[in-house]
């Protein structure tokens, strides 16, 4: 993902804006603070601000986002690789991954929107129980799924590099830009020969929270951005 560069003066100037015009309801202004988290670096905040005020592509489609843990035996104990992608058919897409990159093995962490159920109706954070390949039958989609994927990748790249969730100040601005995470060096996949830009390496939580990176960090970020895309984006 090639991103523009901003000098410090430009960053400060861009961050002075407090609101943006809603695409779906042009007469309304929406606060940036509601959608741009303070725990990401200022540069990422500006990029996210620029992205959420732009209309989605006319060829964008409905779909869903998913998370797959890449089971890599070479990974250190304190990190986890997670692939965040979009699809219109998660079961078929999962099988395509296995066929395209056979040396990699994936564990399904979850998808959004979750399958409609009494539990998800009560709480959007309810644990997903239909994650077996034969049992995944999503009932809902989000509009402009390519746009949602781009926004999610933008934020998650920052979060993976800085791991603000490991700071006691999380999720405030005091946890931004600490470089507690992993700086990835991407290289072509040995199977498909492509660089997997959608794979992020996260520092794991310590102690009892280890293994909860999807539930406590990644999925909430996707959910919040999905709300913006669903309710406030328009062509």
TrEMBL record:
Residues 80-161 form the Bacteriophage T5 Orf172 DNA-binding domain. This is Bacteriophage T5 Orf172 DNA-binding domain-containing protein. Signal peptide: none annotated.
């Amino acid at each position: 993902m090639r991103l523009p560069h901003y000098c410090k003066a430009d960053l400060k100037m861009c961050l002075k804006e407090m609101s943006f015009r809603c695409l779906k309801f042009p007469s309304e202004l929406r606060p940036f603070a509601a959608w741009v988290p303070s725990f990401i670096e200022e540069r990422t905040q500006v990029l996210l601000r620029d992205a959420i005020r732009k209309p989605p592509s006319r060829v964008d489609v409905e779909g869903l986002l998913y998370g797959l843990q890449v089971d890599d035996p070479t990974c250190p104990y304190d990190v986890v690789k997670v692939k965040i992608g979009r699809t219109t058919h998660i079961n078929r897409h999962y099988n395509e991954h296995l066929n395209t990159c056979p040396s990699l093995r994936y564990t399904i962490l979850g998808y959004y929107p979750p399958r409609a159920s009494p539990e998800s109706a009560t709480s959007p954070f309810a644990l997903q129980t239909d994650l077996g390949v034969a049992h995944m039958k999503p009932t809902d989609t989000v509009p402009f799924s390519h746009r949602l994927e781009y926004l999610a990748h933008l934020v998650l790249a920052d979060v993976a590099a800085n791991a603000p969730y490991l700071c006691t100040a999380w999720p405030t601005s005091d946890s931004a830009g600490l470089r507690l995470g992993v700086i990835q060096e991407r290289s072509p996949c040995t199977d498909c020969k492509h660089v997997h830009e959608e794979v992020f390496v996260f520092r794991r939580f310590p102690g009892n929270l280890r293994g909860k990176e999807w539930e406590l960090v990644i999925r909430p970020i996707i959910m919040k951005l999905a709300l913006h895309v669903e309710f406030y984006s328009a062509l």
